[in-house]
TrEMBL record:
<dbReference type="Pfam" id="PF00535">
    <property type="entry name" value="Glycos_transf_2"/>
</dbReference>
<dbReference type="InterPro" id="IPR001173">
    <property type="entry name" value="Glyco_trans_2-like"/>
</dbReference>
<protein>
    <submittedName>
        <fullName>Glycosyltransferase involved in cell wall biosynthesis</fullName>
    </submittedName>
</protein>
<keyword id="KW-0472">Membrane</keyword>
<keyword id="KW-1133">Transmembrane helix</keyword>
<feature type="transmembrane region" description="Helical">
    <location>
        <begin position="267"/>
        <end position="289"/>
    </location>
</feature>
<dbReference type="InterPro" id="IPR058718">
    <property type="entry name" value="Agl6_TM_C"/>
</dbReference>
<keyword id="KW-0808">Transferase</keyword>
<dbReference type="InterPro" id="IPR050256">
    <property type="entry name" value="Glycosyltransferase_2"/>
</dbReference>
<feature type="domain" description="Glycosyltransferase 2-like">
    <location>
        <begin position="4"/>
        <end position="163"/>
    </location>
</feature>
<feature type="transmembrane region" description="Helical">
    <location>
        <begin position="228"/>
        <end position="255"/>
    </location>
</feature>
<feature type="domain" description="Low-salt glycan biosynthesis hexosyltransferase Agl6 C-terminal transmembrane region">
    <location>
        <begin position="283"/>
        <end position="376"/>
    </location>
</feature>
<dbReference type="InterPro" id="IPR029044">
    <property type="entry name" value="Nucleotide-diphossugar_trans"/>
</dbReference>
<dbReference type="GO" id="GO:0016740">
    <property type="term" value="F:transferase activity"/>
</dbReference>
<dbReference type="Pfam" id="PF26629">
    <property type="entry name" value="GT2_TM_C"/>
</dbReference>
<feature type="transmembrane region" description="Helical">
    <location>
        <begin position="310"/>
        <end position="335"/>
    </location>
</feature>
<feature type="transmembrane region" description="Helical">
    <location>
        <begin position="355"/>
        <end position="377"/>
    </location>
</feature>
Length: 413
């Protein structure tokens, strides 16, 4: 079978029959061998029977959520290609040929673009049209090397095996972003075609919740991009803290009538420590995600881990600790000059704060080197070749054990 059209369904009695008939009519008109699968997520309004009467196959998905329903339908699909779309009659299931042609041409994922194809009046709330979708799609393109302009279009087609191999896991509306992100970082052939969006045919409010689901999309994009979640903010904080801290270590800085002194130096120290910790978290996340298969292995991170060995990390941390201790000794000498009496904060903190910062970062460096070494311990994984070799050895052993028994039987005869 060439094509399966999958529609998630939760109480879509008003529109599901129309959508099924349109999709089946399209396949009949184009001579495509295919089916329509309704992934029902617990409808209580009779949507299941209406879909069957229209010619669809209904599969029940117990786990609630948009992503869970779709994955249930995709797993049940019999077609080599799958086109997914909402069962609310907002997408035109009679105009799926551009998706089919791109899939036949070798695409792994074909996204619809509603902004290029046309959005009918009233089909998309202004908040989604002018803020939500454009902003989240821009963030997706910024975080990942994707050219997709409409990350959240619900009408999309793909090779079933390619998408199943991605191991998609999210169960909610962020499933739409996960599919695009993972397809992109795994190097699949992702294309985009114009499609239209019409007002849905339901009298009830949609399942989508603008702010809740928008945050879930944004959260997913951040969690799958350690560079933007940890590394870049951390690097900016470190650079800012080091610049300001270095300047204030030698004395107060005046900008017009504003005077920046040791209080600002403490803040700069905190920025350095927080920024350094964020950069380390980016490294931890990358190494862990690559080892566990959540993200593809980054060759730059692998080279960095190979260069920054445990021993080198311990040496770097030790040198920073020595510098911090040296600063602490200098601060004690300064206190001794004052006969261990009351100190002037503007003088003493210029020694204590950088020294304490160096000590904190030294221990962070040592602990990070130890932790990365633990993450880098590769588990022994049984490969298909290992399985085949083990099976061959077991078969040979079985034959060897069977020969004496067979020989004894022949002697008895």
């Amino acid at each position: 079978m060439e094509l399966t059209v999958v529609m998630p369904c939760l109480n879509e009695a008003e529109t599901v029959e129309t959508c099924v008939r349109k999709a089946l009519g399209f396949m009949a008109e184009q001579g495509i061998e295919g089916e329509v699968v309704i992934a029902d997520n617990g409808s209580t309004d009779g949507s299941q029977q209406l879909a069957r009467d229209a010619g669809a196959r209904v599969v029940h998905v117990d786990q609630k959520g948009y992503g869970n329903a779709l994955m249930g339908g995709i797993r049940a699909a019999r077609g080599r290609y799958v086109i997914m779309g909402d069962a609310d009659d907002s997408y035109d299931f009679t105009a799926l040929m551009p998706f089919v042609e791109e899939l036949r041409g070798g695409a792994d994922l074909v996204m619809g673009n509603r902004f290029r194809g046309g959005i009918a009046p009233g089909a998309m709330p202004p908040l989604h049209r002018y803020l939500g979708n454009p902003v989240l799609s821009f963030i997706g393109r910024l975080f990942f090397p994707s050219a997709i302009r409409d990350f959240h279009c619900g009408l999309r087609g793909f090779r079933r095996d390619s998408i199943l191999n991605l191991g998609l896991q999210t169960g909610g509306m962020e499933f739409a972003s996960e599919m695009v992100v993972k397809s992109t970082i795994q190097g699949l052939d992702v294309r985009e075609v114009p499609t239209t969006l019409s007002p849905d045919g339901r009298s009830r409010p949609p399942h989508l919740r603008s702010w809740r689901d928008g945050w879930r999309h944004l959260r997913f994009l951040l969690l799958y991009s350690p560079r933007w979640l940890f590394f870049i903010p951390g690097l900016v904080l470190m650079a800012l803290g080091l610049t300001v801290g270095t300047a204030l270590t030698f004395g107060p800085v005046y900008i017009g009538k504003l005077a920046f002194d040791v209080d600002t130096l403490v803040g700069a120290s905190a920025a350095v420590v927080i920024g350094f910790q964020a950069v380390l978290f980016a490294l931890f996340t990358k190494v862990y995600a690559a080892e566990e298969g959540f993200l593809p292995e980054d060759r730059r991170i692998r080279r960095l881990v190979d260069v920054v060995t445990l021993e080198r990390g311990l040496i770097a941390g030790g040198l920073l600790a020595l510098a911090g201790l040296a600063g602490m000794v200098a601060s004690l000498a300064h206190w001794q000059v004052r006969n261990f009496g009351e100190l002037i904060p503007a003088e003493s903190l210029r020694l204590v704060v950088p020294s304490a910062t160096a000590l904190v970062i030294s221990f962070q460096t040592i602990f990070a080197a130890l932790f990365i070494s633990i993450l880098g311990i590769r588990r022994t994984k049984e490969t298909p070749a290992d399985v085949a070799a083990s099976a061959a050895e077991e078969a040979a052993e079985a034959v060897r054990m069977a020969r004496p028994a067979a020989a004894q039987h022949e002697d008895a005869l």
